[in-house]
Amino acid sequence: MTTRRVYKVSEVSRSSGVSVRALHHYDEIGLLQPSARSASDYRLYDDDDLLRLQQILIGRELGMSLEAIRRSLDDPRFDRRAALRQQRLELAARAERTAAMLRAVDDALAMLDDEGAKAMSEEQRKSLFNGFDPTRYEREAAQRWGDTDTWGVSKERTSKYNAADWQRYKVESDAIMTDAAELLRAGVAPQSVDAMAVAERHRRSIDRWFYPCATDMHASLADMYEADERFAATIDAFGEGLTRWLSAAIRANARR
């Protein structure tokens, strides 16, 4: 008779890259509960648990909230093999888009390196935007803010940005999110001075790149980050729970 292999939470953490703290959280919310407990009440995971954890990570990568992932995995109709096939198609399509964007960035770098370059041909101009989908959220954004001054200012500013501008913005934005995630992992409270300083950097970045963003508007954005799963997924990609932490820091900064 084959003995079922089980793994301690520390082993699962090392194999998956998911922190022990996150695994404990998944257990507490019923997303990934270990199949067994040791005599000393340690969590013990089996191979089926590891496959479920992979589904959680794939779902997060595809922008799903933890609650949406839990509902889908607990649905009696859930078919893991069919889900994996569909997820593979989605991830392959994303990889193709990412590869196209990387080529576009390389094209932009080549143009910047060529100081004596002539005016770009139409083909070169198009190559700068391979893989990007600027209309992805445009219709929704227009519905939300299309009749506001904010939308008009943002539309006017971003229409002038080229690939290099967007790359500079991404570097700046990623640095802010990375610093925020480090504070979160260090256990720094969102109401602390350091947390509010990161929130203020975030507000000023929006103000500089998109539209005038006063603290009250910034607080409204925090509400949207928490309410919209797509925003939350993007922010939480830097650290589990970062959306909630950053939103609290933004509100604290606004009150200050």
What does this structure look like?
This protein is mainly alpha-helical. The chain has three domains: 7-78, Multidrug-efflux Transporter Regulator, Chain: A, Domain 2, CATH 1.10.1660.10; 91-133; 135-256, Orthogonal Bundle (Globin-like), CATH 1.10.490. The chain contains 13 helices and three strands; from the N terminus they run E-H-H-E-E-H-H-H-H-H-H-H-H-H-H-H. Strand 2 (36-37) and strand 3 form a beta hairpin. Helix 9 (163-185) packs antiparallel against helix 10 (193-209) and helix 11 (215-227) crosses helix 12 (229-236). The radius of gyration is 22 Å and the shape is globular. Mean pLDDT is 83; it is low at 137-141.
Q: How would you summarize the topology of this molecule?
A:
Layout: E1 7-8, H1 9-16, H2 20-28, E2 36-37, E3 43-45, H3 47-61, H4 66-74, H5 80-113, H6 122-127, H7 138-145, H8 149-158, H9 163-185, H10 193-209, H11 215-227, H12 229-236, H13 242-255
Antiparallel strand pairs: 1-3, 2-3
Helix pairs in contact: 3-4, 9-10, 10-13, 11-12, 11-13
